[in-house]
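Hi there,

I know you've been waiting on this one. I reran it after we fixed the sequence typo, so this is the corrected version. Both the input and the resulting structure follow.
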Amino acid sequence: MDASRTNADVSPAPACPGCDPRDRPIAELVARIAVLEQKLEAALRGGKRRAQGSHPLQTSDALGCCASQVGPGAQVPVVMLNKEMGLSQGKISRFFQRLFGLKLTRGGSRQIILRAAERCQDHRHAIVKRVPQGRWIVPDETGWRIGGLGVWMHAAVGEDAVAHLIAWQRGCDSSRRSVPQPEASSLLIGEDYAGTPVHGGWASYDRFWRATHQTCLARLLCRCKELLDTPRRGAVVFPRNVKALLQESLEIRDHRDAHKITLTAARRWADELQKQMTKLVTPVKHYAANECLSAYLQRHDSQPFTFLRHHNIDATNHRAEQAIRPAVANRTVWGGNRTDVGAVAQAILMTVLFTAAGQGRKAMEFATPALRATPNHRPFLLPDTG
């Protein structure tokens, strides 16, 4: 646009013969507005004023070097690539560069993950509160790393939620603390839990004395298999009989689920199997490994057959193992987290992603609106938790 033209005076259009002379001021006002619009357009094109975008999908109104942003539509794939598929920050950067032509540094990828974790923190609080409200919980734990040091990752699977926690100890090491700390498992389950935890037999779960426990039969069968793989004359008799009782309980469960027997009959079978197990483990075993298994079964004589006495109780803790398996793959690929902040973000995002998957919701469909929404209008993953 010619600058001289913008500064020129624009005379109002002459009034037609039929117009009232009182309309002349209106024509002059219209002409002045046209001049101002021309000057404003020239100033904007001349770089005297920066234009600020206002697209509804923008996550920030920053200008200058910060005007180029990675929106929620790209942030959620970064989180999924790192937490679900196990890609490191460097591999994520190369992925975006080669596939989309976007230059994303490793630090930028890390900031995206931390920001997503901050936005999902309220969801994790709601999930951790929801897990102990179910009739059953399936907990488990595995090794993890923070800065190369060994820590523990805990998982607790509820009826409609999955919670994760990364702690520096597997249980509570009170000998090194002046003030006793709660068990890491109790932070997810709750000290007063009175449902049915299905676990692998770790001694820390015995603290939930109000609960009705179910020991993972897969763990017990694995112990029997290990004893049978190293036979020592008559030492194979005990693990073979224990294995037979456990397999018989699984057959009774299949008959109950197929409606071939009633729940009352399954409970009678559970009582009979418990009596046989008590009779089997009572004598002292000469082989040390057999005595160790026998002592465990004596302490938890009723726990292996709880699933026969109640509907919808699993015989194994496979749900928790499935919730931890992606973390094990991530630990193999990129070794864990470097800082405590990253470990907290890891627990938050795994909790949200696995809970969404358990409810049949796609991570993209939930996480993208959650990252884009304002604090007062964020969608909630669980109902009645707002």
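Quick highlight: Residues 1-8, 173-180 have pLDDT under 50 and may be disordered.

Best,
R. S.
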